[in-house]
Every structure is written in C-alpha cells, then in structure tokens.
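Schema walk-through. Below, the input block comes first and the output block second. Nothing else is stored per chain. Lengths vary across the set, and this one has 261 residues.
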Amino acid sequence: MPQLDGKVAIVSGGSSGIGEAAARLFAKDGAKVAIASLTPGKADPIVADIQAAGGEAMATALDVKDEAAVEAFINAVAARFGRIDILYNYNAAGSLTLGGAYAEVTESFDNAVRTSVHGTYFMCKYAVPHMEAAGGGTIVNTSSVAATKGNLPDYSPLHGMGLSHSAGKAAVEGYTRGLAVDVGVKNIRVNCVRPGWVQTPRTMRNLERAEGVMAYMLSRQALKTLSQPDGLANAVLFLASPASRMITGQVLTVDGGQTLT
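--- output ---
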C-alpha cells in the first residue's frame, strides 16, 4: 500500500522544480495534493496529470507573504479534503545577484527573505491546528547549502551572490528546529531539506549568468553531476512519510557532496 494513502498534502511553490516533483510524488504515493503557486494557472497542468492518473488535486494562486491569503488557502484545503497531514514548504524568490554585498537591491533582498521566512512561518502557523485536529502531521521546509557556506565565495564572478538567499534559508533552519520542539507534543514532526545546486529552471537561469560557473561548481562537488528535482523530492517524501517517524528537528543535506569540499 502506498505510504501516503488517505493523507492530504500541501505543497507551496509546487508549480515547478522541486515543488512540482514533490507534488507529483506525493500524489503517486496516494496523497491528495493541494498546490500553491505564485503564478495563476501555472500548476493547472500538474493537477490535470494527477487527476488523469486517478488522484485528487487542486491548485491555487498564492503569495505566501500574504498572511490573510495563506490562512484562507489552508482553510480551503481543509474544507475540501477534510484534513491536512503534510506540508511541504518550497518557498524561494528572486535571482542571484552578482557583485557582492552592496549590489543587491533592498527590495529584492526583502522579498527573498520574506518569501523564505515569513512564507514558511505563515504556512506552518495555519496548517498546524489542522494537523493537530487530525491527530498529527509532518512538515518539511526547504533550506539551502547557502545557509551554511554561502554561495561559492571564492569564485570571483559570483562572490557574495545571493546573500538574501543565504540569510533567509539560515533562518528557515532555525525556525524548523524551534517549531519541532514546540509541536512535538501534538504529534507533529518538523524537518528540513538542504539542497545544493539542483537542475531546476530557476537554478539554470542563474548558472547561465556567469561564464564557467557550471564547471567550477561541479569541480567543488564530490558527485560530478547536478541533482535532479526528483532526487530532492524523494528526500522530502522520506521525511513526510512514516518511514521517518522518529525523525524531527533535523536538516537533511542533499547536495551531491558539495559541502564536503
């Protein structure tokens, strides 16, 4: 029997990349899936594919920085499917800024940090009561290796890039640990995945902006290939499933050995 049979899973940022892969994998494993995406209609083809395969899914346009909209979305999911068991927060925004600490526009920095931190906080805040009502649940947040080592600091074309990404994802890791302690008594587990470079559309757009960065990045990684979204999605599935029932407050690094060098 599928591990997630009868469960209801929410995926924020679920219209592309790791979020899309996770939504599809959750559905394949038996869950009813609700996808939140910033761009209206972008997740509709994913919902159609899930439904065509016999699953249940819905999609809603959502800015995770909007607390009232997040509350309404979470409540709408619970009303439609009757419960909420799993929340996967795949929240990221902005593009990597070349040029160091003073190059990133303040508004861009604020947007990226609010998407990662406030977005994760709002989604968890309103999902937890529904999980408690269901007898428990699992939350998986998304960090980045940039939270622990920065973004390729010794490669001059990319020196200091994406500082908002580093700051926001470091905060997500701290929030994950704190929330795990707070809601453990409610039978809710909270963990985090920490990906390295993953071959998503957003990552590829950023890698194309500086000559030689792909070769340099792979030279600093133990496994000489970029991770695929499915690889991260399988890690998310593990943390969301009963297979990890005694794991909480942890950050699982899935980076092909990038942080080993």
